[in-house]
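Objective 1.3, modelling of assemblies. Example input:
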Amino acid sequence: MAYEQSKSTSTASASADPALPPNAKKPAPVRPARVKRRMKAAQALMEVLVREGTTHFFGHPGGATLPMYDALYDFPQIKHYLVRHEQIGVHAASGYARVTGRPGVCTGTSGPGATNLVTGLTDAIMDSTPIVTITGQVASNWIGKDGFQEADITGMTIPVTKHNWLVQNEHNVASTVHEAFKLAMHGRQGPVLVDIPRDVFQREVEFDAEDLVSKHSYRAPSKPTVQALAAAAEAISNAKRPILYVGGGAISSNASKELFEFATKLGAPVAMTLMGKGAFPETHELAVGMLGMHGTACANYTMHNSDLIIALGARFDDRVTLKLDTFAPYAKVVHVEVDPAEVNKNRTADFPLHGDLNVVLQELTPLVRRPDTEAWWKQVSEWRQKHPLVYHQGDGAILPQFAIDTLYKMTKHRNPVVTTDVGQHQMWTAQFFKFDQPRKFITSGGLGTMGYGMPAAMGAQCGAPNDLVMCISGDGSFMQCVQTLMTASENNLPIKVFVMNNNHLGMVRQWQELFYQERYKSVHMPNQDLAKIAEAFGCVGMQARTPDEMERVFEKALAIENKPCVVDVFCDQEENCYPMWPSGTAIDAMIIDDPRYAKKLRMKN
Amino acid sequence: MKHTIIALVENEPGVLNRISSLFRRRGFNIESLTVCRTESPDYSRMTLVVDTSDTDAEQVQKQLAKIINVVDVQDVTHEPIVVRDAVLVKIKADAAARADVMTIAEIFNAKVVDVSPEELIIEAVGYESRVDAFLEMLKPKGIIEITRTGRIAMPRCGTPVRAMNNA
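Predicted structure (tokens):
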């Protein structure tokens, strides 16, 4: 039913009349007439996507989503990226979301299209990445009958989404998608999924954007009480050995400015997790490096010996704590967290502060006094000096650390976005690539999804078209979503992929060497010509074979502007990633320097 | 220890699945779970009993609260509550044994709800330990089958009702 035409048009024309006295009361602004338009539910869905600001849509069509793609035909403002596997679409949406801070949007058809999304959704829930996923479903009358390409995707994704919906009433399509966007961004961000049967897409609805209401109200997260803030502030002000433990929540919450003020007022050491990198400038003198299994010795010692951990948007994950009952034994904990379920989950918080990090920090900073940390800094600086991150590049094969360090030095003035895959190269990138801004380092932290890097780079390039976007990958991960290159090249997305190719699944190889008596099994991958693969996909393929030529090759790659480029970096096959703090051990088990080099050095002396 | 948790949830298909999926995924063991309609057709009410540490019970509560169909969660273990468990028990009771069984039932305020020449069905309602004691007494007589509701709980009169206000 159409709304009545607004009756105030005459008043509106009067307001434009220059003859009106200047002090005449301004007439109320005229609202455009509200008209409910008849359209298919699929079209209403597109209208909502546009309203929610969707400009990039990553997906792969299929039978159940045909009506949606038909509607998409009339919405050129939504650019669709045809991925060659749905996993790539959901990772690309993740890269887009993490670089822009807005939800990424992706789609797959029913059945296999939908199940291919599951890895990416799991990745997103672990890393709190806001993603809206639309899946097609078989026609309503076939649901539950094991029809062709039917999969119970809402049932399957319950544990890996914040929420999901199977929309069986066409009149709920628009409002559900609207709510999906709200929920993805609300509180602790994360993925959501809307499953829509084929026939529901096709049914007619009356659409009015003004009518979009979400069923649940999403109120802003509560704030900590005055008493809780005061108690935490007192503990912070009196700490002798404080440390800021900064996680990905600081980036999700856009709290970098507030964090900088808080940290510099305290003058306390700042340690970041893999997910928190860049929330606070890593080149700042307060930054002590990354925490955890492959973090800096300095950051881990500082954490271990601290008397107050100020955890900001972090969740005491096993890759940071390694062994909970020996982790940071002298410390009390201030835990600022938007998700109440994270408080007391792994480590009991003495001062829990529930709320959005940037809001909490705004209230907390004025309440704290700068603690006396002179003696503490003396100790921390000693650790920092004693245990720098080192590598020993010789005349032989390129060391991955050398390649990454060189890339960092060559590109830092361009403030690049860097994505990674998962494994040794990821840890080396985390160690050697420093970020002074948030939303520049994009990696799969919680799930450790090999194959994440290139799709995420593609999504990031869509979200930041003017930025230099690089993916640092390994030869194992590169292959897992290699067909990303096709979508990137046909869309002229100039992502730069640097593959630390050591012909091995390097991290697995490292563990087999260290913990399985060098019984190497299924980790060797010889004879991959990655440059040729890249060329076949319409990208530029290059090789960097020796330390001497490496920088020249990198320079050429970085200058390419209209095409994706893959650089196959011929790396040392046996280099291991240190420091390494083995899982499930106490801090004294941390291996700081490569024992092989230590031995060589001893022999030299 | 046993924690009693009351949850008010939206009356929608799949909500029970979301909740049981959460318990499975997080490794919480459900001792008993009852779901029922409420005074409002839009909501169902659950009473959960979880045998776990206080820390885990806190996790249960917080994780439940994250499910968007869960409107309200309360751990009422340490609150003043009324707790009941109902049982139907079918028992062998021929003419010779019947009087004896019925005396036991009387002591426990239980009611005979069905009868045949050889069997009786008795219903009993009460605190779980009382129901347990009742069943223990009946055991030697030859229990054929039992069905129990599991714990249902309600805060005592005079305690503020928070659930519906948050809906």
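The interface with chain A takes residues 14, 17-18, 21-22, 25, 55, 58-59, 62-63, 65-68 of chain B (CB under 8 Å).
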